[in-house]
Amino acid sequence: MKVLVVGGSGFIGTNLCAELKRRGHDVTALSRSPSSDDLPKGVNKVMGNVREYGSIREAFEGKDAVFNLVALSPLFKPSGGDKMHDEIHRKGTEHVVRAAEKHEVDRFVQMSALGADPDGPTAYIRSKGAAEEIVTESVLDYTIFRPSVVFGEGGEFVSFTKLLAPPYVSALPGGGKTRFQPIWVGDLAPMLADAIEDEKHVGQIYEIGGPDKLTLAEIARLIHDSDGRSTTVVPVPMGLAKIGLSIGGLVPGFPMGKDQYRSLQFDNVTDDNDVDAFGVGVGELTTLKAYLNGRAGDVGGGSAAATSD
Question: Of 103, 101, 169, which is closest to residue 139 (Cα–Cα)?
Fold first, then answer.
């Protein structure tokens, strides 16, 4: 198939491009800076910005399948403020869907997020929900993925956790009880590729998570243990965290704000993990602990030291 990966030079995009290329597809990566050396040999590169329809529309010509992976991180306040989530996720998806419809693309895969809801509690969640509505109301044969946090080489989840919860003493809002279900990018990329190769995935919305549901405090301990260090979690009352992040969000350059506080008030885990739709058992997935200890890809390689589930 001729496949266009919008956002193809990002963390998940580069892994997906490699997987698609390995399967023999003709792959094109579209991004604002497509000269990334991380893209595998043989992947075509095209420059475009989802905020500017005219810059992306021609890249869709002749394509059989399109992935829309463009996304801002929910972990940090974006440059330009929270309104950028709407600019990139909702309006960007409008442009991508419009171009896919114009060029009669056969298959469309949208990267969304757990909890996506147009009426959700954060700008990120609301924009992801609005983007899903655009996709489901289109004429495209779509598949939507709602993953929990994704980790792997080049990802930001581990480094973000180290920033939020430093070694030895970590002051975490609410004691770090918010739960996540981290999934390794090496497990996610094949599922994404499967979505365009089997008709059974058309019209499906999949919640995808890793094998363990871990609190932020448990994740911090795993990460620091892998570095040979310990950490003691000191609870910060949520009310105090709200004040701190609200004030911090007003300071230019401060990386977090009210939305990051709100996001810590609800779990980022699946109700039903849909990895079995791709013939994958939960026990086959790489745990965060295995990845941190250099054993990513080992089937059943190391359950987490502690799980909250």
Answer: 101
67-125 pLDDT, tens digit per residue, is 999 998 877 777 777 889 999 999 999 999 999 999 999 999 999 999 999 999 899 99
Nearest to 178 by CA among 152, 153, 148: 148
Half-sphere exposure of 201 (CA within 13 A, CB side): 25
| Coil/strand/helix, residue 192 | helix
Share of the chain above pLDDT 70, in %: 89
- Using the 8-state DSSP alphabet, how is residue 136 labeled? H
117, 129 in Cβ contact below 8 A? yes
Kindly state the DSSP code that residue 165 receives in the 8-state scheme: S
Please count the other Cβ atoms lying within 10 Å of the Cβ belonging to residue 281: 11
**Spatial CB neighbours of 137, under 8 Å, sequence gap ≥ 6:** none
> For the chain, first and last CA: distance in Å?
41
Tell me whether residue 4 is exposed, middle or buried, using C-beta atoms within 10 angstroms of its C-beta: 0 to 12, 13 to 18, 19 or more: buried
Which positions of the chain have pLDDT values less than 70?
A: 36, 240-258, 261, 299-309
**What's the burial of 234, exposed, middle or buried (CB within 10 Å: 0-12/13-18/19+)?**
exposed
Q: Which residues contact 264 (CB under 8 A, 6 or more apart)?
A: 173, 174, 178, 216, 238, 241
pTM attached to this predicted model: 0.89
| Long-range CB contacts for residues 79-83, cutoff 8 Å, separation at least 24 | 82/122, 82/123, 82/124, 82/257, 82/259, 83/123
Cα distances (angstroms) measured from residue 214 to each of 59, 105, 179, 220: 40, 39, 5, 10
Which secondary-structure segment (H or E) carries 234? strand 231-236
The rounded distance, in Å, linking the Cα atoms of 181 and 219 is 10
- Residue 202 CA to residue 187 CA, distance in Å, equals 20
3-state secondary structure of 206: strand
Q: Which two tokens stand for residue 200?
A: 């059974």
Please report the pLDDT score of residue 263 as a whole number.
73
